Amino acid sequence: MTLKELLKKKLTESELSLIPTSFDIVGSKEKAVAIIDIPKELEGKESLIGKALMKKHKNVKTVLKKLSPIKGVHRTRDYAVITGNKNTEVTHVENGCRFLLDPQIAYFSTRESTERMRIVEKVREGETVMIFFAGVGPFAIEIEKKAKPEKIVAIEINPSAVQYFWKNIKLNKSEKIEVLMGDVSGNVDTYAGKCDRVLMPLPERSIEYVKEALTCLKPGGVCHFYCFATDTDDKKDKIKQTAKLMKKKIKFIEEQKVLPYGPKIWKYRLDFELIE
């Protein structure tokens, strides 16, 4: 049964029409957390919705209601536990890798699983890969497990995410990942001209760190830059401006729509190569 069908006798038709058709489930068959966006019109009905969701998905032990957008440098949002266990730490399995995390204190998106595998398939044997905004380690760990890089350097500013990242390195028996805690700015000079690939999976702010990405890349290296944009936006102009100021030549090689973000707005990936 769908969530609406489970709630049919408990809500009015107008209330049922507002029930979200999608939500995120993070975790395993043994224990998972559901994350749902409940409109203001359904305030007071959260417990009913949460219990119905747990009835539909037996592995869900907690239902979280979103209270804010993703915010701040640590990329977290405010939540309310509307039903279930207050302990929201789970182990999520993705592409054969396991990730221990608490979605309330460290960013993790299940919806980006396909995109992570797209990047894994691009990594070539022997590469040095730099990952900005690395979170709890999904890109880094999946790249190490599925590709054959020489080394991965991952930077993350959220201390809680870094703690989980280290636990996930041990959980997945990773051996080629170096984790740096802090802002990207000021942490990459040591790797100037040494990286074959740079990932920038923070669409809200990636444009602020294009200089650091170009600094890390060696000639022939590729950057995976993420941003939010409409189909008609000029997504390349600011990157070109930064490269020009740095007297570096780049070539755009791919543009990928990753996920819908809002009305006519998408999360995009732009891949560009450093020529010299």
Q: Please, could you describe this protein's structure?
A:
The chain is an alpha/beta fold. The longest helix is centred in the middle third of the chain and has 13 residues, at 159-171. α4 packs across α5 (138-146). A hairpin with a 4-residue loop joins β1 (24-27) and β2. The chain contains 8 helices and 13 strands. The strands form 3 sheets. It has a 7-stranded mixed β-sheet. Strands 1-2-3-4 form a 4-stranded mixed β-sheet. Strands 5-6 form a two-stranded antiparallel ribbon. It has 2 domains: 3-88, Met-10+ protein-like domains (GMP Synthetase, Chain A, domain 3); 108-274, Rossmann fold.
Outline the fold blueprint:
Layout: H1 3-6, H2 13-16, E1 24-27, E2 32-36, H3 46-56, E3 60-66, E4 79-84, E5 90-94, E6 97-101, H4 113-120, E7 128-131, H5 138-146, E8 151-156, H6 159-171, E9 177-181, E10 195-200, H7 210-216, E11 217-229, H8 237-245, E12 250-262, E13 265-274
Parallel strand pairs: 2-3, 7-8, 7-10, 8-9, 10-11
Antiparallel strand pairs: 1-2, 3-4, 5-6, 11-13, 12-13
Helix pairs in contact: 4-5
Strand order of the largest sheet: 9-8-7-10-11-13-12
Largest sheet: 7 strands, mixed
Overall number of structural domains:
2
Residue-averaged pLDDT, rounded? Answer: 96
Query: Are there runs of 5+ residues with pLDDT below 50, and where?
Result: none
How many helices in DSSP terms?
8
CATH architecture of the largest domain: 3-Layer(aba) Sandwich
**Pattern of helices and strands:** HHEEHEEEEHEHEHEEHEHEE
Query: What is the H level of CATH, i.e. the homologous superfamily of the largest domain?
Result: Vaccinia Virus protein VP39
Kindly report the CATH topology of the largest domain.
Answer: Rossmann fold
Distance between the termini: 57 Å
- How many beta-strand elements? 13
Instruction: Quickly name the level 1 CATH class of the largest domain.
Output: Alpha Beta
**Helix coverage percent of residues?**
10-25%
**Global morphology:** globular
Strand content: 25-35%
Radius of gyration based on Cα positions? 20 Å
Name the structural class.
alpha/beta
